[in-house]
Specification:
Elements: H1 12-16, E1 24-26, E2 32-34, H2 45-57, E3 64-66, H3 85-112, E4 120-122, E5 125-128, E6 132-135, H4 136-139, H5 173-177, E7 193-198, E8 207-210, H6 213-216, E9 221-227, E10 230-235, H7 238-250, E11 252-254, H8 266-272, E12 275-283, E13 293-301, E14 313-319, E15 322-327, H9 332-343, E16 350-354, H10 366-380, E17 384-387, H11 390-396, E18 403-411, E19 417-426, E20 480-487, H12 502-520, H13 524-530, H14 535-548, E21 558-566, E22 573-582, E23 586-596, H15 603-622, E24 651-656, H16 672-687, H17 698-708
Helix pairs in contact: 2-3, 12-16, 15-16
């Protein structure tokens, strides 16, 4: 008796949102409206999703109208993060559109009297023998998409796709190039007011008193909102709101704050706090021999700010007991869930609509500012727009968590690795809204009946982990133990930043591997290849090495380094070769990368994502560090928090390894870990010193030289 074939499974987003009409519909204007639950945050995802839809429906991509995510109409795909949009939304749309095409072919067959197998679709027109024809739009009234998807709708073979695999121009770029209003910062509502919120300079302080007289005298002031420790002003113009806030600040008194860590001893702070300890993974080796030596190294990275070009912004409008919010949140349904808790409203009374913001690298203040706008709009009785100041964004938005990573490697007499112990001390890397019984929004901790500040946690391993992301080596080592120590205190607010813990862990692993290769006198690329069994991993390393012409003849003041990772150990493969110039300071001249994301939907989009990740990682490695004293964040302006300037951007060269036969994965977060490690290893190649604390600044290089002397 033969075993029946397993039933086809839905992609995860389609399983959660099976109604076909929630994803696709045909409009009266001859277009196809596609409604993904994922949002555009500068990564070009709406273009790649439009390509998938156009391919499966056989329509020109110009007919695809991408609808912004909204809780009023879009499928609930959770949050746009983790390089998962192609995996989740793309796979769902591919199946939806394949089934929709099939439904219309059946309807056309009945109308035209032609077997469906003899019909063809070209730009939405369905034709068959005898020059019979109809179209999606002619049949739209006869085919209801208000039905659940059925498993197994046959999507096209990769070889027959005509749009996916090509560098189609991004659909969002023309508006941005020609300065047409597209960002939330550019939009306005009729009768809209402007709001600002009063927040303390001292970390953890709470508003205890407020003299409003001076603020009320500011021309243009409309309202002062007060709810416990939350206070804000609403005015006719943005300038008037800022003036009123300045006056209000002078009348405010605050409680004592909460002490911040010693910024110059972050590792000591992280390793001294109460923690939740988890064994992430173990591997044992039968008959392991006794090590000849153990190498122990500690690596750190600081708190890192999102530092987007534009601060967070939102608009809100009340209509009786219903509220409408426009935001650049990455998760409109998740934000709505938190707003429902704070406002004590049914979720159905709240509409959260995504509008693009200028730059997004994770959980910044987009959700916080949405609640600010809601509270101020409720007090003002008119629509209110709130745009955080640069100071507020850099002081109060969540940061990427600081990390201390210790690796011990047991080596034999030939410096071959026998055992590997990797331990991480870090705050959790996620405190997004909508995932707990308590809200994660800043103003929720300030109102009269405040909610406690959520201590950031780590996503589960099945979702790629958080502080432990990429901590399990992809290399074939004989034995290892990977341990995570998540802090249970959080004096500095932390949440998701691009790659979560992946950057820190790849930096640590790849740095120590480089060091061991040097101990053996072995080429670092050959050393890595010798410890890998995954051919796709080997291919990206070889491709990057070949493209960078590894390894050029040694020159004084120039160094080369390599880094590799598979993002989350389940996503894109990426290898990087860095060429740097170094003396007291380091300048990254060139980055050469190879990437394998499986099937490539938009090659130029993949290159854009790899380039962007590589450049941002260069900035993290050389410059970025949240600064603070024992009472408050001090890096609240670009002068205090420098990022890579345009003149410092390295040349970035990317090679894509095409694998159209393999399901695609995202590219957005593949590069930062390998690039970080490649630059650090290039610094060693150039200067002969290991800098194990990020960022690699002149002071850190001098300290490493002094330690090595």
């Amino acid at each position: 008796m033969s075993t029946p074939s397993p039933a086809p499974k839905f992609p995860v987003s389609l399983a959660a949102n099976p109604k076909l009409s929630s994803w696709a519909r045909f409009t009266d204007e001859g277009q196809v409206a596609i409604s993904p639950g994922k949002v555009e945050i500068g990564q070009g995802i709406v273009t790649a999703l439009a390509q998938i839809a156009a391919d499966e429906l056989d329509v020109d991509i110009g007919r695809i109208q991408m609808i912004r995510a909204s809780t009023a109409r879009s499928p609930n795909e959770g949050v746009t993060s983790g390089s998962l949009s192609i995996q989740q939304s793309g796979r769902a749309l591919r199946q939806v559109c394949a089934e929709v095409r099939q439904l219309f072919l059946v309807a056309a067959s009945e109308r035209l009297g032609v077997d469906a197998s003899h019909l063809d679709v070209n730009d939405g027109t369905i034709s068959g023998p005898g020059n019979v024809r109809t179209s999606y739009w002619e049949l739209a009234g006869e085919v209801s998409l208000d039905r659940d998807a059925t498993p197994g709708a046959p999507a096209k073979l990769a070889a027959t796709r005509g749009v996916a695999g090509h560098s189609v121009q991004r659909v969002d770029i023309p508006d941005k190039v020609f300065a047409r209003p597209r960002f939330i910062h550019d939009r306005a509502l009729p009768g809209m007011l402007h709001g600002c919120v009063l927040r303390p300079d001292i970390s953890g302080a709470r508003l205890t008193g407020l003299d409003e007289a001076a603020a009320r005298a500011v021309p243009g002031l409309v309202a002062i909102a007060r709810d416990g420790g939350f206070a804000g002003v609403v005015a006719e113009t943005e300038a008037a709101a800022e003036s009123a806030l300045k006056a209000l600040r002078k009348g405010a008194t605050w409680s004592a704050g909460e002490p911040l860590p010693d910024e110059d001893d972050l590792a000591g702070f992280l390793r001294s706090q109460p923690v939740e300890t988890s064994i992430i993974d173990t591997r044992t080796s039968a008959g392991a021999s006794k090590p000849a030596r153990t190498v122990r190294r500690q690596y750190t990275r600081p708190y890192i700010a999102h530092a987007s070009i534009a601060p967070s912004c939102a608009m809100a409008q009340w209509d009786g007991d219903r509220v409408h919010i426009w935001t650049h949140s990455q998760g409109v349904y998740l934000l709505r869930a938190d707003l429902a808790i704070v406002l004590k409203l049914p979720a159905e009374s709240i509409i959260v609509e995504h509008t693009e913001g200028a730059g997004c690298y994770g959980h910044n203040a987009a959700d916080d500012v949405a609640l600010d706008a809601v509270l101020l709009a409720r007090a003002a009785g008119r629509p209110v727009r709130v745009q955080w100041s640069r100071h507020d964004e850099m002081a109060h938005a969540p940061f990427g968590a600081a990390m201390a990573i210790e690796i011990e490697a047991d080596l034999d007499a030939d410096n071959e690795i026998l055992g590997w112990r990797h331990a991480i001390w870090s705050n959790g890397h996620a405190a997004r809204p909508g995932r707990a019984a308590q809200p994660a929004l800043l103003a929720a901790t300030e109102i009269a009946n405040p909610y406690p500040r959520m201590i950031s946690s780590n996503p589960p391993a099945a979702n790629g982990g958080g502080g432990d992301r990429n901590a399990v080596p992809l290399y074939d080592l004989p034995a290892w133990t990977i341990t995570s120590h998540r802090l249970l205190t959080m004096p500095v607010r932390t949440s998701a930043l691009r790659t979560l813990g992946g950057q820190g862990n790849v930096f640590a692993i790849e740095s120590l591997l480089d060091e061991i290769a040097a101990l053996r006198g072995e080429d670092p690329i050959e050393f890595r290849l010798r410890h890998l069994r995954d051919e796709r991993a080997k291919d990206v390393i070889r491709a990057a090495a070949r493209r960078a012409q590894w390894k050029p003849q040694k020159r004084t003041g120039v160094g080369h380094g390599v880094g590799f990772a598979r993002y989350k150990n389940t996503g894109a493969y990426c290898a990087a070769i860095a060429e740097i110039e170094g003396a007291d300071d380091v300048r990254v001249k060139r980055l050469t990368l190879a990437v394998d994301v499986g099937e490539v939907i938009n090659p130029d989009g993949v290159i854009n994502q790899i380039e962007g990740g590589a450049i941002q990682a260069t900035s993290w490695v050389l410059k970025e560090r949240v600064r603070f004293d024992r009472t408050h964040i001090t890096s609240t302006a670009w002068t205090d928090y420098p990022i890579l300037t345009f003149s410092e951007v390295p040349a970035v060269d990317v090679e894509i390894i095409q694998r159209p036969e393999i399901e695609p994965v995202g590219a957005g977060e593949a590069a930062p870990g390998p690039v970080t490690a490649a630059i650090a290893n290039a610094v060693f190649d150039c200067l002969g010193v290991r800098v194990r604390d990020l960022p690699i600044t002149r002071d850190r290089i001098i300290a490493a030289m002094e330690l090595a002397s």
